[in-house]
Request: fold
Amino acid sequence: MSAAAATDLERRLREVTALNATQRALTSTLDLAEILRNVLERIKHVTSAEGLSLLLYDRERDELVFASTETLQENALACRETPLPPAVGGLMSPERLVVPVRGEERVLGTIDLQRRYDGRPFDEHDRRRATAVAAELASRTDLERVAHQPDALHAVFARLAAAVPTQDAALIVYDQERRWVAAHRQAVRLDDASHDPRHDPHLARRTGLVPRSMLCVPIVHEGTLHGVIQVINKLDGSAFDDDELRLVQTLADHAAIAIENASLYRQAQQAALTDDLTGLGNTRHFNRMLPELLGRGGPVSLLVLDLDAPKTLVDRHGHLVGSRAIADVGGVIGARL
Reply:
């Protein structure tokens, strides 16, 4: 066997190994954070990249969302729950606390904390301390750069750990611009990114990581865009090749299926705990949350509301109007709790 043939065979064996390992990892979980972590780990292994980023597409905001977490510890990190819409003031449950990072004109991102180290449920003191950290982040002019730099991220997570010690902490930063790959849903290889019109120059200015050679691939499943993976600069300074582009796209295709399955699973979980008409938690959600609330040992309040004469409204105006009235009441309650 010639040296060239041996090299080609070795490369193909690496590809098969990477695909097999990725497939096994992706089919072993429905947790989105673990799925993204597995994908980036495999891509890093097969490309020897200097930096990685994964941006997920948020349909409601029509934005690509870059999310960074403490657990991955890469130049660019990805792990994300559903982003917090601007109209929502935050989220607090016994095991999860989400606060928005609000700028003057829009929500810049969110802080997502899960499970206190001491096992206690989150409370208003935790919310205030996390909100203070969010305000500090909102005042920064380099927030998106922070999201791409490990040292800066570690400083943010250390600040969060000091404010609210938790087992898991995530910083989610919203990207204001749709990238070329997301808009066209085409994978591209940039041998000289700084001079390519498809490259977004904001990346270098915001992150301090100057792209030379890049791979950019869409995460698409059955016509639905889920995000974009960017692979930035090889460690040895060489350019990426078409084989690496093809392999990263294949890994992204596998990731798209896993992300879609995880999304459907989360939607099913949410639907099982939500009343279709009002959007509020249903009896199943109540029965799940009540033991946790009672387990805190503190005061628990129960508010019971009775709508006056809904039958009269239905008899006079019909079931559609009656249902709409109940839904409106549920919306008012949900907006204030």
User: Anything to note?
Assistant: The two ends are 71 Å apart (CA to CA).
